[in-house]
Write a structure and sequence with these properties.
6-stranded mixed sheet, binds adenosine-5'-triphosphate, Rossmann fold, about 400 residues, alpha/beta, binds magnesium ion, 2 domains, Glutathione S-transferase Yfyf (Class Pi), Chain A, domain 2
Amino acid sequence: MRLEAMEKTEQNSRSKKAGVRKLKLTNFRCYAMANMDLDPEAPVVLFGANGAGKTNVLEAISFLAPGKGLRHARFADVARHSSFMDEKITSMPLKWAVWAEVKTAGDMGDITIGTGCEPNALGETGTRRAVLINGESSSQNELAEVFSAVWVTPAMDRLFGGELAPRRRFLDRLVQAYDPAHTGRTNAYANAYKQWGKLLREGCRDTAWLASLENTMAEYGVAIAAARNDLLNRLGPYLHESWGGFPKADIALDGFLENKLLAMPALAVEDAFKEKLMASRFVYADGGTVAGAHNTDLVVHHENGMEAALCSTGQQKALLIAIVIAHARAMASEREDAAPLMLFDEAAAHLDKARREALFEILLSLKGQSWFTGTDSTAFASMDGKAQFFNIDNAEISSAVA
Ligand SMILES: Nc1ncnc2c1ncn2[C@@H]1O[C@H](COP(=O)(O)OP(=O)(O)OP(=O)(O)O)[C@@H](O)[C@H]1O
Ligand SMILES: [Mg+2]
């Protein structure tokens, strides 16, 4: 981006920031109760010893967006574990909740988001989470319209070399922040794919039923692939620009639908996918796989030409951060009304001082509040006076100075 355009983006973004103003946790992981009052426009630094409760706070924030949060956890694990509870609480059902007052970047102003799990009829933690937006029962699709978050966590150190599913979730989270309707599409596709697979493996031969699920998968699959291709086009210019010592990156998608869409109109791709699904029924029923929106991969290369999976741990982390920042910058320049919150768990630890400071500087200019964790507050010294610092000690959160 040219300097002039960058300055314009940054001027616009200063007045239109999104962030959490109040956060309240109930029976969430190590927290029986916790409250935070925040400046929604300033970054947040959480520091404290190992096991103090820092990542748990970031995970709570990630639940304000659709999905299973930054640990992709089972909700039963999120509810405060009974062995940590005093007697009075142990006798209560396992119910966890995260509530926040959020300043949005757009015209909506402040909203409240509440989410959590009620116990099921057996008194166990439920497997679905309820969502309330401004006190009204809402869907995850509606949540996507008002809040998005992206994160970089230590578990993502193996994102490029590890299994495909977390990489695809990362990709879809970036798309969803840009295009909230993506949540509904991916859920509808996943439900149809799950049902289709189940029917085939149970030996179902009801071709009308299978064809109707294949139709749904084709319709949503093509829309998902188009949204992913669109995201890559938007990120490209930002990823090819160097800043603060972070590497430039090349990203591409390896997916049946995404590749076909580059060469054929959407309707022709839908037809091709329907045919492929129909032709794969027997193979799939026998335990085989079929290519579709569910197994698209994100392929990343470092500017030195190396595939991300073969880069050093530090280089991979820098690539991941470069992608997240390119995404936030693209959104800040194109979108007035939305900004993802950015959660960096232990991310500063892998970066040298110059890169760390470059990262803080660019984040201060973006539209979404950024959150950091670290065991030592001195790593964040350059944010002194610009960020709000909290010390966490054994699940007690207190406002602190750097
Ligand atoms: N469901 C739960 N109920 C009670 N405690 C839990 C639950 N899940 C996790 N914990 C505990 O919460 C504590 C804080 O975890 P967290 O991951 O937030 O620590 P942290 O401050 O990020 O530490 P580190 O610096 O090692 O990453 C841990 O001791 C963990 O065992
Ligand atoms: Mg942690």
